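Format notes (please read before filing issues)

Several people have asked whether sequences and structure tokens are stored in separate files. They are not. Every record keeps both together, in the order shown below: the sequence lines, then the token lines. Line labels are part of the format and must not be stripped during preprocessing.
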Amino acid sequence: MIGLALALAAVATEASAQAAPVATSRVTPSQVQASTDAALEERLAKDWGLRADEWARYRQVMQGPLGIYSPNLDPLTALGIEARSDEERRRYAELQVQAESKRVGKTLAYQRAYDAAWQRLFPGQQRVSLPGAQAPGAGNKGSGRLAVFVKADCAPCDQRVRQLQAAGSAFDLYMVGSRQDDARIRQWATQAGIDPARVRARTITLNHDAGRWLSLGLPGELPAVAREVNGQWQRQ
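Then the structure lines:
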């Protein structure tokens, strides 16, 4: 009897152990997503040289009026505009200068590689400068010669460029609305009768406008011929 009782007790214990719930650790999809988002935010903040609290403030700022008026502002500009002290404003300005210096350096390095590739593949053909490939601090500083702003489907633009070329003027041509398409500028230049030899000699340069015309803030319609005089751009 004692043996039977012990056997029954053992069976009951085993059954109880099998029936007992086992606690498991489960990670929900929302937890995984939250972790991924946090890692991404941390990396983005680091890319801009910002602390986590500064990045959080940038997100907050862009939820307000500034984000509505200027939805595409970069973090440093947004934080600089909404700086709460001179010290903050100075910090973001310095970070932005450093970031711009790096960006322009990379662009210029690629411009050199682009130039070399063009010479290898299409020697002697017209070439335009890549957008944004200008020296640090160049901004809207003039080259000392005329800047000519034109657009497609503009008969007066063609006529003005022909006049300048006939007069032997050296000028930098900027095509507004080029959509960063080199072929579009070359086609326009051919239509306007621009001499390829003068382009190769760089007495005439072909460039994407990339917002330059609007940034000058000059009145009037295109075509526009402008020159920098004592630091101020004036229509000629």
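For reference, the curators noted about this record: The two ends are 119 Å apart (CA to CA). The first strand starts at residue 146 and ends at 151.
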